[in-house]
Structures
1.
Amino acid sequence: MPATDIDRRYGDPDATPTPWATAEQRLASAEVFWLSTVRPDGRPHVTPLLAVWHGGALHVCTGQDERKARNLAGNPQVVLTTGDNALHGGLDVVVEGEAVRVVDRAELRALAGAWEAKYGSDWHFDVVDGGFADPHGVAYVFRVEPSTVFGFGKAPYSQTRFRFRTT
């Protein structure tokens, strides 16, 4: 379980911390995430994508020649964001962590199954050496184990921080 605290500066005085189980459920059920990476020249790059929560981490995939993959080759630090596009109500979640490439075939098969279970048969992936089959080569798969997660509640307003032990 992560260490959890609420930042009273950014919320309603009577707000309580978002439980980790609630934030984790949001990560597991959210359909669209926004991935933020850093280009080689230091400029940010943000793109929407699909992700699966599996084994205590978010997983994303991208074609080997896409901007995301090239950015991650130089700087694996990322932010993944998901939530509700509403001012009043819901929960936005921000995950900070390091993207580590998944190449183990058994893990890739499990992740391919997780993608299809979550998003349906349109998101079926065949496993190949180094990732998922892609018409343009190989789609790399990355595991983002959280180092810090923020939960931004909007009814009442609150900011909860979840800190994970990193090695």
Note: Residues 14 and 51 are 33 Å apart (CA to CA).
2.
Amino acid sequence: MAGLLVEEPSPRALPDLPILLLHGTDDEISPLPLVRMTTRTAPRAELDVVPGGHDVLTGTGRRCVAARTVLFLESLLDA
């Protein structure tokens, strides 16, 4: 997104880039239905729901997050 003006792309549409979204099963800050709506505006977005709350990097599902992130990055290398 570096170099793009704030107006580009529209705030409701995400760029056509590979995006990994990770959501905690017990997240009360970002409701899962809203996160799912985000994936509809990004054709290459992947959404995974992991154990834990809003802070998925340090919560109970942190190992799932780490493993899923590595798999996602490896898939980019294979593409």
Note: DSSP finds two helices and two strands in the chain.
